[in-house]
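Researcher: We're teaching a course module on how sequence relates to structure. For the next exercise, students receive a sequence and then see the predicted structure as tokens, so they can try to spot secondary structure elements on their own. Here is the exercise chain.
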Amino acid sequence: MTIAQSNMKDPKPITGKTVLVWLLCFFGVIFTANGVFIYFALGSFPGVVVNSSYEAGQTYNREIAAAKAQADLKWQVSSEIARESSGATKLMVTAADAEGAPLYGIEIKAMLRHPAQETADMEAFLRADGGGRYIAELDSLPAGNWTLVLEIEQDGSRKFKSENRIFLKE
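Model: And here is the predicted structure for the students to work with:
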């Protein structure tokens, strides 16, 4: 029988001092990472969403009152976006009163907001096409998700507002 001899040293025994050093290093790394994240979080967002909470509340109250007035009108407004083979895009809005009669003498403004890119937002003023139908030509409207915001003004005041999420295919 042969005995194999090894020149390897026995591993160093784990002592209380070794465990303490490892724990301190571990939590030191965690606290350092948290400190860096807190520094960048506080430096990048000041925590102020609106400058005046009172004014924001008043604006919100006006929006609620406008929504109630809009509901009382019972207007029927529908919109459609159509792409032509030439690549042009047409926005068509049909507006009728509570009895279904076409609305005349109104101004319609449409805003197409891109959810991820503010620079891609588009604004269009629709022109009357007769019979309560209003049309706008939209140039180079890319495919994707959009929020269509329609505002209708009559006699200089906003009477109708809607926000609808739409998806445009290529």
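Model: If you want an answer key for the exercise: The first strand starts at residue 76 and ends at 83. The CA atoms of residues 12 and 128 lie 88 Å apart.
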